[in-house]
Amino acid sequence: MLLFFYIYTAKRGTMNKKTRGDLLLILTAMIWGSAFVTQKSGMDHIEPFTFNCIRMLIGSAVLVPFLKLGRKASPGHGPGGQLLPDEKRRQTRLMIHAALICGITIFVGTTLQQIGLVYTTAGKSGFITALYIIIVPIYGIFMRKRPRNILWVCVVLGIGGLYLLCVNGRTSIGIGDIVTFIGAFAFAAQIQAIDYYSLKLNPVLLSCMQFLICGIISVPCMFIFETPHMAAIMSCWPQIVYTGVLSC
After folding, report:
1. How many Å apart are CA 170 and CA 189, to the nearest integer?
2. Which of 11-15, 95-99, 146-150, 198-202 has the highest average model confidence (pLDDT)?
3. Which pTM does this prediction carry?
4. Sign of the CA dihedral running 199, 204, 205, 208
5. Residues 136/191, Cβ–Cβ less than 8 Å
């Protein structure tokens, strides 16, 4: 319903840019949050590197038809709309640099998240991963970005929620919770990188490239640390497709 409302109002031109962005982020959160359930059930069939390798390569491939949607106007364009040689080389170098940073950080984040899901619940994993919303502005402090005062209220609430979800009767935190929490720092770094590079590059192409790099890095890890079987992969293809197509 949210998607249909977004399309309807966007076509009529009755929605401003900020509202459009907020609705897209809410829709993203709904898809991303529901994916934790499929990611958890996928771990009943295959191992983390195998799951991430296939879903990320699928995610990269799915974005290819939409690359033109993310094109940005640039002062380096010539009269025919094509990039001038110098600007094209600069954009290519920047894209490679950005894709490597984003791809490596999302590889670390998703790998730790999938490993954590083996030992913790989908609900706890979702909450702990979402703590990157606190970590992101904390990173910003080191980048000379002054956070709003409400951030510190969020920090207290986030730590309180983490305690209530993760600490059991013996006041201990499980290994899956710790691994997932470490992964949240990688996601926060990836978001900071996206925030910086998406203003300078085609964001759809950047997303496509980061998922491709993440998938490629996962290939050797899959064969070194795991034993992938086609039968096991096919037994959880709905989970892989859901996370690969919708989440990515």
Report:
1. 33
2. 95-99
3. 0.81
4. positive
5. yes
User: Is the CB of residue 130 less than 8 Å from the CB of residue 29?
Assistant: no
Report DSSP letters for 89-111, one per residue. HHHHHHHHHHHHHHHHHHHHHHH
Q: What is the DSSP string of 142-202?
A: HTT-PPPTHHHHHHHHHHHHHHHHH--TTS---HHHHHHHHHHHHHHHHHHHHHHHTTTS-
pLDDT of amino acid 92: 87
In single-letter form, the type of residue at position 17 comes to: K
- The pLDDT assigned to 157 comes to 80
Q: With 90 as the cut, is the pLDDT of residue 184 above it? A: yes
Q: What share of the chain has pLDDT > 90, as a percent?
A: 40
With a CB cutoff of 8 Å and minimum separation 6, the contacts of 85 are none
Cβ distance 158 to 165 under 8 Å? Answer: no
User: How far from each other are the two terminal CA atoms of the chain, in whole angstroms?
Assistant: 20
The pLDDT of residue 8 is 56
Q: Name the β-bridge partners of 83.
A: 77
DSSP percent split of the chain into helix, strand, coil, nearest 5:
80, 0, 20
Cα→Cα distances 156→87, 147, 150, 183, 242, Å: 46, 15, 10, 20, 34
d(CA 98, CA 206): 7
User: What angle do helix axes 85-119 and 48-63 make, rounded to 10 degrees?
Assistant: 150
- 163 versus 243: the higher-pLDDT residue is 243
